Amino acid sequence: MKLIHYLSGRYIMYSAIISIIAVPLFYLSLQHLLLKGLDEEMKQQKNWIEKKLNKVSPKDFISFENNVTVTLSKSSKKSDVFFSEPVFVETDQEVVMHRVLLSNMTVNGKNYTVRIQKSMIEDEDLLKSILMLQLVFIFFLILGLGLINFSISKKLWLPFNDIVKKMKNYRVDISAGLHFMPTNIIEFKDLENSISELVDRNNTLYRSQKEFTENASHELQTPIAVFHSKLELLMQTAPISEEQAGLIEELFLSGERMQRINRTLLLLTKIENNQFPDTEKIAVKKVFANLITQYQTILLRKNVSLEISSHTEPEITANPILIDILFGNLLSNAFKYTEEKNPIKVDLSDHSVCVSNESLNGAGRLAESDLFQRFKKQSNDSSSLGLGLEICKKIADLYHYKIGYDFADNRHFFTIYFK
């Protein structure tokens, strides 16, 4: 749920609760005031009748529809009783609620019972009208306040939404900095300043690391090449003992590994720096045909077959060198971690390329969280650098492809989704 919807919903809900409590209270208070007014009016009328009874007979009190009746009473107790009761009105042929004053009084030594009644129909109609007006007014008040609150909140949260949107799209490797929407809200200004400082620190740190990797890779190329050539010269000198030959071989293998790491890190740096700007339309099927030729020796040595299934002729637009590296790394990974005599399958479609291989030694599902991380290896193979799948991920990210992994039927599936 969006924050603006949450706030508006709560605002309307609490307004409705207050209205539900306030409307009946207002109705009862108004009814009490109207009854009090009627009671006061009937009390004054009773006092007037009491004065008149000193001069005229009770039979002379004639009122319309017997709203006032005066009768002799045996009780000498003085009392005034107010109550409401329904009374049938003959002229209207309906029952109408009346307010009644029943009073006992003594005038000139005679006891009388005076009954005064007043129709409440006008007061009830007035109450209903007021109640309806109040409900309509409250409805439009809540609706109006809700719309105003929603509109104000929507404008108020625009800077925050802008921050969230730009943070979602922020990438340290491609974003130079973030520029947020101007705002007068102090809290949002503080948030924007804090995020801008954080982003600037991250960008500076990332650039420093990238420059270090790039410079180190470049600077190491020459010493490593010299190291290799000197080792080759040393191997050609004589005499060399068996022990010395073993040490030189170990140094040579370590040098080769160092050279491969250096080349790979340099390649990653170039991909991150987008130093492969040239693109062209590439036939995916043709790329795999060339890769089969390149990997023919490995296929024969491991006695594995490569099965390519495709019902279409998929084409993509990208740099051909990077695409060779991308698919080559996927195939190389499959060759490395498949059992002998088991087929490696490649499924091509217009939207994806899937490379699958049998799990080596029943190793099962790979740890997906480490699959595309630098120097994270899924096996104890010392020849693996742990950089191949990261290169695949970097190339896929460069062209906005998605790379996925799945494990089913004891097979690993690596899929590149083009769209």
Relevant terms:
419 residues; alpha+beta; five-stranded mixed beta sheet; 10 helices; 55% helix
Would you give an account of this structure?
The structure is a single chain. This protein is 55% helix and 19% strand. The strands form three sheets. A five-stranded mixed sheet has the order 6-8-9-11-10. Strands 1-4-3-2 form a four-stranded antiparallel sheet. The chain is rod-shaped and about 155 Å long. The protein contains ten helices and eleven strands. The protein is α+β, with helices and mostly antiparallel strands and 419 residues long. The chain starts with a helix and ends with a strand.
Number of strands: 11
- SSE ordering: HEEEEHHHHEHHEEHEEHHEE
Output the number of helix runs. 10
Q: What's the overall geometry? A: rod-shaped
Q: Give the DSSP E fraction (strand runs of 2 or more residues).
A: 15-25%
Mean pLDDT: 83
Distance between the termini: 30 Å
The radius of gyration computed from the alpha-carbon positions, rounded to a whole number of angstroms, is 47 Å
List strands and helices in order, with pairings:
Blueprint (H helix, E strand, L loop, with lengths): L2 H50 L15 E5 L6 E11 L4 E14 L2 E10 L1 H36 L1 H12 L16 H51 L5 H31 L7 E4 H11 L1 H7 L3 E5 L4 E4 L1 H17 L7 E5 L3 E7 L9 H4 L16 H11 L3 E7 L2 E7 L2
Parallel strand pairs: 6-8
Antiparallel strand pairs: 1-4, 2-3, 3-4, 5-7, 8-9, 9-11, 10-11
Helix pairs in contact: 1-2, 4-5, 5-10, 8-10
Brief digest:
The chain is α+β, with helices and mostly antiparallel strands.
